[in-house]
Design goal:
With 470 residues, the chain is mainly beta. Strands 12-13-14-15-16-20-19-18-17 form a nine-stranded antiparallel beta sheet, with no helix packed on it. The protein has two helices and 27 strands.
Length: 470
């Protein structure tokens, strides 16, 4: 699907064509069919977008800045399946968005095309030597990252190019304090299980200032598993990682050399100090309640590049805590937030908050351990339905992307207050494989960038952020 709305600017107010009885009729319909429930007011009710793309509160506007299938400046096409994304300040009013594409070796068989196009007609323009891996016939695999240069002052997309090639299922990731994007493969395929030449399931680093394809170096010491997101503590340089499995773990990587992850390091998994081998999901039995804190210990992981796809099982057997589909992960003010997409009694998501020890990663943490809290747990799918990527807004709220694959339910952008109360910021007009993902604020806090995975759209949202009502 091609929308051809690059530069289209629409506002919630533009859809307010209701007066008198028309307003009353709409309110009556919404009372029966509304797709969301707010715990606090937030920015007020969503207004139907006349372009049927993104519903926002009154006063907010969006601009389409990039779409799948567009021709990039390197001659390749913008790949499909947009996912996680990082935002970086450049010179002047320009920013760089480094964006993941969750494409698998079979994606070219469907409409989720890679940089070579739907029929691979442009794949010859991609230097195979710069791709991490290929199909057995020598064609580069479709996954990777693109970099979008956007001018905040003019609202114009300046350029786009492929920045990492030949990887698989690049899902989420995270920014680093040294100006790069860590992109994560959510897969564990090997040459004996798929039409590929190398094993996958790694993290790769993409500098935000790269003007072309980067060297595809797998950071193997960070573990081989179904990676989702990462988060770097700017104080210590320790990297935290989520795993998108129902029986996944929450990891941290202590690098040998701060800021140089390719030098190797030590991988560990989180465990509740007083309940080794616990399941944090509350699905089978209630282990903890919203607001509860648990002290943690970290368990050393061995054979982290195992070909057997068993890292999480070995970690759990050693006492690590299960996190049900750990996905989004983002740094806040001295703490980080992570989502467990299918956690909770109704399996519609939890948000956990981790506060590192003052002595994180050193012997001193044995006396002053880090702590993790059950911050939010969904009890109603209209309040929160399968939380995925998230970011921390400049004013301290969380902005959370919903990811439910349904032909009847909508995906929303949810806000979460510091008290853990939820409100709705946006609604996706698409159904099915149309998750929100990659939410991230511009460095000046004026713009929220977010992706719609399919058909592949990057949006810039502006509005009266300071007018939040809680």
């Amino acid at each position: 699907m091609r929308l051809h709305r690059r530069g289209l600017l629409t506002t919630g107010a533009a859809a307010l064509a209701f007066t008198g009885l028309a307003q009353q009729a709409r309110a009556a319909i919404q009372a029966v069919t509304e797709t969301y429930v707010n715990e606090v007011e937030g920015y007020g009710p969503l207004i139907a977008d006349p372009n049927r793309l993104l519903d926002l509160p009154e006063g907010f506007a969006y601009r389409v800045i990039s779409q799948g299938g567009e021709t990039m400046d390197d001659g390749l096409l913008v790949p499909g399946q947009f996912d996680g994304m990082g935002c970086f300040a450049l010179e002047g009013s320009r920013i760089a968005l480094v964006r993941n594409h969750e494409l698998k070796p079979t994606s070219a068989l469907h409409r989720n095309w890679g940089p070579g196009g739907y029929n691979q007609e442009r794949i010859g323009g991609l230097d195979v030597a710069r791709a991490y891996d290929t199909y057995r016939d020598g064609r580069p695999l479709p996954g990777g990252t693109t970099t979008v240069i956007y001018d905040m002052a003019t609202g114009v997309t300046v350029s786009q190019h492929l920045s990492l090639a030949g990887t698989v299922a690049n899902c989420a990731g995270g920014i680093t304090p040294w100006g790069s994007w860590l992109t994560c493969e959510e897969t564990e395929i090997r040459p004996d299980t798929a039409n590929v030449m190398k094993s996958h399931g790694y993290v790769f680093e993409v500098p935000a200032t790269a003007t072309g394809l980067v060297d595809p170096v797998p950071l193997k010491a960070m573990g081989r598993f179904d990676h989702e997101a990462v988060c770097v503590d700017p104080r210590t340089g320790i990297v935290y990682q989520t795993e998108d499995k129902v029986d996944g773990l929450f990891y941290r990587f202590i690098p040998t050399t701060r800021g140089k992850l390719a030098d190797g390091g030590r991988l560990q998994a989180l465990a509740f100090r007083d309940a080794r081998g616990a399941d944090s999901s509350n699905r089978e039995s209630r282990l903890w309640s919203v607001g509860d804190w648990r002290e943690v210990v970290w368990i050393d992981m061995e054979d982290v590049d195992s070909p057997d796809n068993d890292l999480r099982q070995r970690g759990h057997a050693a006492g690590a805590t299960l996190v049900s589909r750990g996905e989004g992960l983002h740094w806040g003010d001295g703490e980080m937030y992570l989502t467990a997409t299918s956690g909770g009694p109704i399996q519609r998501g939890q948000i956990l908050r981790y506060v590192p020890s003052r002595f994180e990663g050193t012997l001193g943490e044995r006396l002053r351990p880090g702590r993790i809290q059950l911050f939010v747990e969904s009890t109603d799918e209209k309040t929160m339905n399968m939380c995925d990527n998230l970011t921390v807004a400049p004013w301290g709220h969380l902005i959370v992307c919903e990811d439910n694959y349904s032909e009847t339910l909508r995906n929303h952008l949810k806000g979460v207050t510091p008290e853990g109360k939820l409100y709705t910021l946006g609604r996706n007009a698409f159904l099915g494989n149309a998750e929100f993902c990659g939410a991230v604020f511009s460095p000046d806090g004026s713009t929220l960038f977010v992706n719609i995975q399919y058909p592949g759209i990057t949006l810039a949202i502006t509005g009266p952020w300071a007018a939040i009502r809680t």
